Amino acid sequence: MIYAHSRNADGDRHLLDVHLRAVADLAAAFAAPFGGRALARWVGLAHDVGKAGDRFQAYLAACEQAPGKRHPTVDHKGAGARLAFDGFDCLAFLIQGHHGGLPDKGTLLTKHKELRADAFVAATIDRARQLALLPPAPEALDYPTFVHDELSEEFFLRMLFSALVDADHLDTERHFEPDQAAERGASPDLATLAARLEADQARLTGRRDDAVGLMRDEVYQACLAAAANPPGFFRLTVPTGGGKTRSGLAFALRHALAHGLERVIVAVPYLTITDQTAQVYRDALGGDRAVLEHHSGVALRRRDDPNTRRLDDDGSEATAERWRRLATQDWDAPVIVTTTVQLFDSLFGRTPTACRKLHRLARSVVILDEVQSLPAPLLPPILDGLQELVAHYGTTVVFSTATQPAFEAAMRRVGIDLPEPREIAPEPARLFATMRRVAYEWRTEKADWEEIAAAMRDEPRALAVVNTKRDALALLDALA
């Protein structure tokens, strides 16, 4: 018998052919939404073919005989990478990188030369062929039609890599930790969450008849109406205090249901806003595995944090924390609240950990909150990546903020044609006029501290912002 992994807690070994087929099936399912089913299946069947070699089987036996001892690792990626080089060479990136991370092209070509001269790799392929473990020849495989240049090819390969890595981890987990694997998923569906949000919104609608309350209701209804529009780029331009957080979620859930999308991902720039947004969503949607909050601050929370307890569906803190940890690995949740750092680390990273959740972006609604805070020097790759998701991976992207940046003009300057996002909220200028609470009077002439102090004394309340401590003391002296 040929094995992929050593004995688990029940004493069972993991058969290699079982592992290869399971990974292939999972990876194919993950890649199906973006036209990568056949390629993902092939790379799933090929990724661990190298484990059929005598050296790796001896390595597994040695690990079982002396489980506490460190044993020299045996490369098991070379055989699969060699198969890819002989038929569909770009898939070698995925196989060679499925543990250590995607290699660069130069490193991979050097590895290819080594594999060609490695007699052990050739012997391993021969043995896998005798055992009927080799996948079909990959010559008949091809990219989807939208993969037409180096950038689109690299993006597609990243998505395939994500599908492979997630499938490999999940099947390995099912072997070694079946109880943990059984705890994955079991989240409410988007239809249930949309109904919960609408029921919770009914608690608020009509409670205020002032201008702000009426505007919030108008924005919410506009978001529901706009959800019927086809997937693509959208803008949600609403002044601060206009109910953007809840209304944006209402659009995302209704839009996902209307077009068969699979999840909602909300990315915000600051941890404080992430906490606040996640809490609003938990309050509206319930805590039974509905909202995954993923950012660096979550891991630092104390175990008695009430936010952690609310995620649990049976009163057990341990269960809630375990679900959060598992769902964080691959974003297997209906609503994810994360940071832009986490999002773009997955989009452009090379490590298996970062890329594992990338395939979840396909056929999702991605809301970029406070989008004006995206770093200007990184806008071209960020927006180009988002455009690739929208154009070819069934993703909808919402730019949500009170201060919309001119992305289209910025992208035209670097030769990228970004489609004009559709505005969700009606007449943003009118909404801002409704929320206007102050009037600005610009004075360009110079004034001394005595004049400023006199102007402040004329007001019932006043705040002066100055540049230095010395200036603050000077104004304080003028105010006596």
Order of strands side by side in the largest beta sheet? 5-6-4-7-8-3-9
Q: What separation lies between the terminal Cα atoms? A: 91 Å
Shape: elongated
* Total of DSSP H or I helical runs spanning 4+ residues: 22
Largest sheet composition? 7 strands, parallel
Please characterize this protein's 3D structure.
Helix 18 (379-392) links the parallel strand 7 and strand 8. Helix 10 packs antiparallel against helix 12 (244-259) and helix 21 (449-457) packs across helix 22 (469-479). This protein has 480 residues and is of the alpha/beta class. It is built from 22 helices and nine strands.
Summarize, please.
The chain has 22 helices and 9 strands.
Give the topology.
Blueprint: E1 3-5, E2 14-15, H1 16-31, H2 37-46, H3 54-65, H4 78-85, H5 91-97, H6 105-116, H7 119-130, H8 150-176, H9 178-182, H10 190-202, H11 211-226, E3 233-237, H12 244-259, E4 263-268, H13 271-285, E5 291-294, H14 306-310, H15 317-330, E6 335-339, H16 340-348, H17 352-355, E7 364-369, H18 379-392, E8 396-401, H19 407-412, E9 422-423, H20 428-435, H21 449-457, H22 469-479
Parallel strand pairs: 3-8, 3-9, 4-6, 4-7, 5-6, 7-8
Antiparallel strand pairs: 1-2
Helix pairs in contact: 1-2, 1-8, 2-8, 4-5, 4-7, 5-8, 10-12, 11-12, 21-22
